[in-house]
Structure formats: structure tokens, C-alpha cells
Model the fold of this input.
Amino acid sequence: MNPSTLVEIERAIQYEAQRKDSPPEGFPSLPVVPGGRYTQQAFFELENEAVWRQSWVCVGLEADVARAGDYKCVDKLAAPIVLVRGMDDKLRAFYNTCRHRGARLTKESAGNAKHLRCQYHSWSYKLSGELMGVPEERDFIKLDKAEKGLLEMRCDVWNGLVFVTENNSAPAVAESLGQITQDFASIDIKSLRVVQHSTMHLKCNWKAGVDAFLESYHVKTIHKDTVSQMLNVDGTVMTLLDNGHSRMVMPRRVSDAQRNVNFNAHANAPDVKGMHATFAANSYVYHVFPNLIIPLEKSGFPLLRFWPLGKDECEMELIFLGPDWGDGERPQIWDYFIQVFNKIMAEDVSCLASIQDSLKSDAFTGMTLSYQERRIYWLHEQLDRCIGVDRLPPGLAVKQLLRDYMTVPFEQLEANET
Done:
């Protein structure tokens, strides 16, 4: 992590922890966020078109397709995708759709193959996408196999994570992530191993799930016996990053009374080698727009992704990563960590179904957000930038306000320090 960034974060933590009055001078009162953004089908369809298809979306781990011939199907987006590692070692993403009549290209959801073969009529394709075989080809008049290769989607890899987009003009993933790539400079995700992979069906809009990880305002209520014992949320620092991404930092409690709940302080805690010491002293929670949440722990950390299943439901997918422990069963310490983490996740999602029901009711007039919840508003600003304000249904736009308030105003910090 950039040393100047670390200095800024530490100064901002002190500022927030000691702040007794209002937010920094000039910070705006955030307008109400219309509830229809979470409930209206028209808005949901605009998201599918302009956000999910046009943004870089993390669809998995590079380790899942590491060898030539490895493939993995992805069915989380509007169109089915298959990730394939070619014999040339290049990773590609294809629409999982045969050019004959649209059948899927693989029987299994993941595996290793020398070519891809349609499960309906056995059209076969090279791992690089070219159509190579058509049974009874003689009956297809003027068939040009060179024009019937698999349709490819843009695919890019950053730090062991695989991203796809249908946007051919989008900058590379690393450029899109910007500051996040600098913050993760000491973290080698590729070297980590999957500790747990699970999914949970949630009866709420995907944004309601993401929102739960964009603020610490709820911690003292929902997590009073868990996270609140681990972190000093009064010192929470939020930074809004370009392209809708954001970062939240909370100082960890380190007194002896908390050592049994703070993972990093546990005597037998795993350790992600090379990870900067700031991640042991503080909890960093990143939002990678649109749907990826990464709460960093020096002992290991999860990747949380929220996938829309409809305007009123989504799937939370959790991949917990930790240091490679070699052969044999995973260390028992993970049983404890995962048990505590799953409890925290259950707390986080406990209110989401009832929130979604309220958002649909006539009694709900919109979301009233505070300074502590500005990452949520920033998400909504980015959604509108992706969709285009002129395309939004009447009454559902949010005002673009926060570009000038992406960090704590350091002139105020300097005034407080003098």
C-alpha cells in the first residue's frame, strides 16, 4: 500500500474517532434514495442492460481454470458463460451457447477437455472457439464453419480474480480498479486456497445485500456481541474511489478481552504472508463495483458476491480464502473462524427480507442516508452514471453529489491537529 495512503488513513481514523460534532464542514445533506430503485422492474432491467453487461464483473478464481483444457461454467449473469483455458494457455470467456441451436457446450459445470462439444447435436469447438466438427455436415448447405465459431466475451484477470464484460470499450480491469490495485500490492490472492465456498438465497434486491457491507452504522445494533467487540467503529474511515468502488477502514480492538474473537490476535491464527501490517491493525472492507465485497483479514478473508435473481431476490456467494496449508485436512482453527464468520453473516442478512418488504410498501417514502452511509449513495450515483440519467424512470434518479467529497477534507484534519 502506498505510504502516503497509510498516513492519510491513520490521520482520518483519529479525526473520526475524536469527532464529537457534525460531519466535516460542507458535507451535503444526502437526498432521499427512492425505494423504487430496489423494487421496480423497469429499473432492474436497466441495471441488467447497462450495469451487469457493461461493467467488469468478477466471475471466479483463476485457479479454477489454471491448466490447459480447464473449463468452468458461469450461470450468474443474463447469458450463460464458459471460461476456458486454451492449449495456448490463454484464458477466454465464451457464451455457453452452441451456434447451431443454442444448447450448452458442456455436460458438467467444470472439468478438463480437449475440445467443447454441444450436448444436443455434438457440434464441437476448439478451446480457442473455432468450430471444428459438425455431424452430417453434408446436410448443411453452404455452411461456413469459419463463421460459426463460439462468440467470445471480454475476459481479464487481476490478482487471481477473473472478470468479464460485454463492453468492448471498457479499460482493462486493473485500470478500472485504480487505487484498489495499489492497496492490494502486498496481497497475493493467487497464492491463497479456498477454505469454504457457500451460497445463500436472500429475499431482497441485490443492492440491499451489498448495502449491508457499505457502512458500519449498524454494527453496534446487529453485531453488538461479535463485530462490535472486534472493531472500534467510531473510527470508521470511508473513501470513495473512481468507477463506483469504495473503501472502508475500521481500527481493530486489541485489548486482551477481545483476543478470543479477533481472528488476527488468536494464537494459532493463519497468516497471509507478505500482507501489510495495516491489515492486522485495521479492518479494510472494499466494494468492487458492482457486486464484489472484500473484507480483508490478515489471517484470510472472504470474497462476497451478490447475484441478482430478480428484483426482489438475490444469491449471496461466499468464497473464503486462506493460506495454503499443504496436504491433508484444513487446520482445525478454520472450524472456529468459519463458525464465527457464519454467525456474523447471519446477523448481516437477518433484516434484509423485511427491509425488502418495507421498500415495496406504500409507507416507505425513500432511504434517508447519513454521512456514515455515503458509500451506499456513491453506489447509486455510479448506477445512474452507467445507465444514463435520461434513461431512468421518472422519480428514480439520484443527484450526483459526492464527487467533491471522496475523502475526508484534510484541511479540516490539519485545523484539528493545530
